[in-house]
Structure formats: C-alpha cells, structure tokens
C-alpha cells in the first residue's frame, strides 16, 4: 500500500477524538487495527503495538492542547526522548477517505451517503476535473472503498450525475 494512504497515529487520534469513542472501545480499535489491519499502518508502527499505542496517545494529547501549552509539551516530549508527531503535507481527499474507512470499520455504520456535489463543495471545487477524479479514485481504490447507487449498484463517480446520491461502502 502506498504510504500516503496508510494510517498515521495522527489520523487515528483525530478519528478517536471526533468520534467521541469511549476509552475501552478506542483501545479495542487500536488492538484490532494493529493485529487485523497492520499493513494499513505506516511502516514505523507495524512492529510494536506498544510503540503504536503510545504514538496515538501522544498525537491525541497534542491535538487537544491549547496553543500556549504546545511549547511546554514539545519540551517534555523531547526530554523523554519521544518524537513529536510529524504534521506532513495535508491532503484533504486522502484524509477524508481514510476517516471514512475508519468510520466504516469502527463506528458501526455500513455506509456513508452523500452527493458528489457535496463532496466537491466541501473541498472547494465546483466541477469535477479528470485530475481530481483520478485523485479520488486512487484514494478510494487503495483504501478499499466503493461507491454505490441506490439498490447497491456499483458506480464510477466520474460517470454519474453530480447530484446523484451515492453510498460509500467497504469492499
């Protein structure tokens, strides 16, 4: 799997925070991710569950910090010889579809329903270009997501009407 589509501790921490998952369920999710979906994690965290869990906890703590507390936390993390979370280049579509995959795996929902126009609008687009659709297809294919029309009919987002309702499901 292309590393761009692998889950980072930041992705997982943000999902846990936004989904307001109880601690016990979050721990079960981390255990399942590590053991059942290990190849979907970035390579640095595939070998040690302890390292993976701690990286998610550090990311969670950093996400919830106030700006004035961030510098102090950075110093403490450095003194403990831990590494700061790396905030790499942010890719909206990839992050959106990674979040969608985590939601479908761990929140109990079977699909995410939306209109293509809504998805494009959220990210500041009005029309779909070939390049944009390739980017969306790459993210969905790699993350094993499929778009369906009503009646569970698979569809290609570049070929449907922009106002058609689609459901995104796990393959």
Q: Could you walk me through the main structural features you see in this protein, from its secondary elements to its overall organization?
A:
The protein is of the alpha+beta class. The chain has two domains: 3-79, no CATH class; 109-170, no CATH class. The protein contains seven helices and four strands. The protein has a four-stranded antiparallel sheet with strand order 1-4-2-3. Helix 1 crosses helix 5 (92-106) and helix 5 packs parallel to helix 7. The protein is elongated. The two termini are 16 Å apart.
Descriptors for this entry?
alpha+beta, 2 domains, elongated
Describe what is shown at a glance.
The protein is 52% helix and 10% strand. By secondary structure, it is an alpha+beta fold. It is elongated and about 55 Å long.
């Amino acid at each position: 799997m292309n590393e761009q589509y692998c889950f980072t501790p930041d992705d997982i921490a943000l999902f846990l925070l936004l989904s307001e998952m109880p601690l016990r369920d979050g721990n079960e999710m981390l255990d399942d991710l590590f053991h059942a979906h290990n190849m979907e994690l970035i390579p640095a965290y595939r070998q040690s569950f302890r390292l993976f869990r701690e990286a998610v906890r550090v990311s969670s703590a950093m996400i919830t910090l106030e700006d004035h507390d961030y510098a102090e936390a950075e110093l403490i993390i450095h003194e403990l010889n831990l590494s700061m979370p790396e905030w790499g280049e942010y890719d909206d579509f990839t992050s959106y579809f990674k979040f969608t995959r985590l939601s479908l795996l761990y929140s109990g929902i079977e699909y995410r329903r939306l209109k293509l126009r809504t998805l494009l609008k959220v990210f500041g687009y009005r029309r779909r270009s070939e390049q944009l659709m390739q980017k969306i297809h790459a993210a969905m294919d790699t993350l094993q997501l499929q778009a369906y029309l009503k009646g569970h009919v698979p569809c290609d987002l570049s070929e449907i009407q922009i106002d058609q309702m689609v459901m995104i499901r796990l393959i």
